[in-house]
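May I ask you to review the protein record following this short note?
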Amino acid sequence: MRVLYCTDVEKSVLNTNFEKRGWQQVGPDDDWNFYWANVPTCRVIFGVESGYRMHDNQIISHFPNHYEITRKDLLVKNIKRYRKDVEKEGGPLGEKNEFGKYVHLDFIPTTFVLPADYNMFVEEYRKNPLSTWIMVKDAYVISKYIENPLLIGGRKFDMRLYVLVTSFRPLKVYLYKLGFCRFCTAKYDTSIQELENMYVHLTNVSVQKHGDEYNNIHGGKWSLRNLELYLESTQGKDVTTKLFDGMKWLVMHSLKAVAPLMVSDRHCFECYGYDIIIDNNLKPWLIEVNASPSLTSTTVNDRILKYKLINDIISVVLPPSGIPEAKWNKIPSREAYGNFELLLDEELAGVDISNKHKIDKHHAQNNLPKWK
């Protein structure tokens, strides 16, 4: 059987992968087996009005209500609810410190959704009136700015991690090892004069590529492996391991927070783009989760990475036959992982890194498996 694919995301890294496999492109109104779709298309397909029903030989690249984790106001709401739930259960995961902060689940900046949280925001602001806040106008979300980011070469950076979810119930999560750091082109400066300087504060490549110091060869990016080696040499191996394990921890628990709400349609998979900032205490903070991480290539290495990413996603989500099959148990062979590593498969025993070990009161993250 020849796989028929459809896509409304016209990126060469997608089409090159599909063509390499001998797949044939068709239109959205034709019969298709594999659809790499954008978010609006999925909204239409899963909408009640469409009446569309997928067959067993069809899979698509988004879950119907992915916005429970990719919309910032809902992400914050769901994580806060998850914290309260685990606290009620009385286990160590819900532990708080003397300041009322969650010891193990404190991985998003202090955030409020207005107008509902207005009074709480005012109370928090009065405690520290000199703090800086960022507002996401579309969703009326206001978050405390991470004012003490870890700097390398005097510049602020963030990380983009790719996280593949093939099922929410049972939860099946894979982390891509080839994520990267994105650097600002201007040196970090917290002065009021530089507060609106995008080249100092915003790591987005779409912004930084217009800066005078932008480098077209490396695109202002570092691989995660380079970051790991740099931190091991400057900060030590133990704290670096703890940091990378902490990133896995926040990925896992952000997904656990939304899993009960997700429509875990067996025809779906999704690759999320996690944006994470590290502070100068080597603590990772989850800034946002993207439903459609950019597949645009800004450098040669960028194109190679994104080509590999798509290739590895296809290998994980398809059964050994290479033919889309919604009834498949979604347990690929280790050889199919490529550059992915399995973080959690609730269907398999003994691989849940979030509960594998008893939580240490002060160093929960130290007990997690090492980043490979």
